[in-house]
Input
Amino acid sequence: MSDIQAVSPPAFERRRSDLQIELTPVDRLIAQTPLVGVGEYVCPVDHPQFRGGGPETCPYVVFSRYSVHLRSSRGTAEVCSPATVNLLDVGDSYERGAISTEGVHCDWIAISPSLLREIAREHAPQLADSADSVFVRAVAPVSAATFIAQRRFFAAANASRPDALALEESALRLVSAVMLETTPAARPAERKPRRNGARRYDIVETAKHLLAQDCSARHSLVELARNVHCSPAYLSRSFARLVGCSLHAYLQQLRLRASLDLLGECRYNAAAIAAQLGFSSHSHFTYAFRRTFGVTPSEFARSGKRNHMSASARSLTRCAANSDCWGRRARP
Output
């Protein structure tokens, strides 16, 4: 009883009004509580809003289904894809550029600014107490475990009116996982190129653009290197150094994450999806899917029909401890 009485009505009201979501014509709000909001953003390339937006009135954690170029007011232009998470803080603005004709389709979690700082304090106290943005990067890699968990989370939120407590706890679990993966205290510092840094960065971003344009296409190292105007060895070495994985591993993650939407919509069986996304065989697709997400494609499709919020939590715990941001199994 003493804990309840310690929270005065004015403090509670301030906490309730901390989250201020400004919806645009291309946003769809799925659910909202005093702490979090969950929604979807769908914008075609020819829509005026595709070019960008902001400044934001609250922090957002955004998961993309399609790939675009994104230039945040806090950083340089980067390829934002299903292999990454987009992090927007209060006051952030951004500009977009098209990679394909698909436009923008992403799912977002809006979170109370004060609550975000509470979460950050667990992983990086220096960020939580800073006057600047809590998020270190505007675009950052996101693990396979977090990606499949957020797909299940949004599927469950869309399927029915979620219980407020379940929605809040699942959303906070996802935000915490993202913070854990993207804060300097949790991830080793990225190695920066000592020479030709700007050129190396441009080459890698152009390669990511080419892979994201059509993840089902078959690429060769020679072809990619020719298109980015460097040697195959330089491209392979630069990509691994800046992105943290090989070109093939990055492409495979794009394919696997694209498969989740197809499995969730039940439009194709696993064999058809494997062929559509460029996998060499059904068995190769199934092996890669299970190795990355911890379940088979058919098990994921069946779980999607149940639409339980708890499936999102199981996804985070099932493979997060055994894989890195690119779905590779950690060494014992």
Notes: The beta strands are 27-32, 36-43, 52-53, 60-64, 68-72, 77-80, 84-88, 94-98, 104-111, 139-141. The chain has a mean pLDDT of 83. Residues 164-182 form the longest helix (19 residues). The two ends are 47 Å apart (CA to CA).
